[in-house]
Amino acid sequence: MALPPWAVDAIRRGIVDVARKAGDQETLSKLKQQATEIFRDLPDTAARSVEAIVRTAKTGTQTLQRWADRQPEIAVPLINASGRLLDNKLGSGCPIPDAVLQVGCDLLRGDCKRGGLRERIDHRLDQLVSGHGIAVAGNLDLAIEMVSQLSPEWGLAIHRSQAIRLPSGTPLPDAFGASAIREVGGVQRIEPDDFNGLSQTIVVLADAGEVEFTLPTSMSDTVRFAVVLPVGTLTDEQDGVPSAAGLLAGGVDLVILSGDGLAGGPSCGLLVGRTDWIERLTSHPQWRGHAASDAVAAMMLSALEHRAVDVTPESDVSTVRQLIAVNEDNLRSRAERMSTRLSGADSIHSCQITDHPAWLIESGRWQFPSRQLRVRHTSRSATQWASDLAQGDPAISVGVDGDEIVVDLRWVPASADGSLAERLES
């Protein structure tokens, strides 16, 4: 049964009043002062919980203000309820942390010191991976293409079973441009004999995420490995997710990975590996057209430095890691509340809760417990409804299964539940 009009009007007035007070600096100051007094009498764990609530409220207010100030035709916010984080065509829906974004904004404003800026950024990047170097390219494809500049000293080869399609849609062998790259082995799996006869060669491998990735063994001393990670991190942060640090420790000489997604930065490509290789690539004339801008490189540095700090889920600035840390009980409670709300809407024919896992990428090996709402509209087909949601403001990305849309909550921040439910009811 739907709520009566007077109740809806009262709730709406209450929300407007809360939003007005949340943006008032005097109210925020009083709230902080009262919270400080409470902290003295609370155990440490409870104090951290209250601090997290205050920070979440402030972040929600900033998000509302940002949405209000944006250009709606260009910057349409996205709520990712598809159940897939990194290979969703509409986007991940996970914003870059404000602390990271601010660095780029400061540089783009044009009133900052420019002399020696890139040298300072590169020096601090290199400190993040002891004994190795890091370079930031404009995107993953450009980072991969730069590897070809290690020739003629090194030849390039790729195993046919590793010829994946990159997130951009480019087949991995094509990402090396016009450079000659030798293809070896079969399309099913890697065999030790596949690399016989190779000498002074960089063998390119890739972890597509479908099966557990392992490095070939018993290679010649003149064969080196470069690994492409469409999904990965700089350091070992998430169980089962490959990291550049882990691969380098295992004998890989060069790792190429995306700077966004799990790495926590803006869209760019990272080259991490042997210092002499990184220096050679960044000193090549072609690097000028492949390097990321100073602002993007600075944001990537800020993101990696934040992630290098030992943080708790409550103090983590990374939206992705915050969403991964959400426990299953939290998702179940949110699904139950939203189901109750939607079941009372006249436009909703049915709403059921399911507990299938969510994914980093579709068909990948990285799964996370989740909750979904399988919702059927009274008059619209699921396909048309999903299309309408994707075209709205905010845009909603959902799955389609038969006559129902599938709304997965794993990659939806709790602060977006209200907007999500409102769009589904409309």
TrEMBL record:
The organism's place on the tree of life at top rank: Bacteria
Required cofactor names: pyridoxal 5'-phosphate
Keyword field: Pyridoxal phosphate, Transferase
Signal peptide positions (record): none
Top-level EC class: transferase
The enzyme's E.C. designation: 2.9.1.1
UniProt-listed InterPro entries: PyrdxlP-dep_Trfase, PyrdxlP-dep_Trfase_major, SelA-like
Molecular function per GO: L-seryl-tRNA(Sec) selenium transferase activity
Family that this chain belongs to: Belongs to the SelA family.
Protein name stated in the entry: L-seryl-tRNA(Sec) selenium transferase
Gene name in the database record: selA
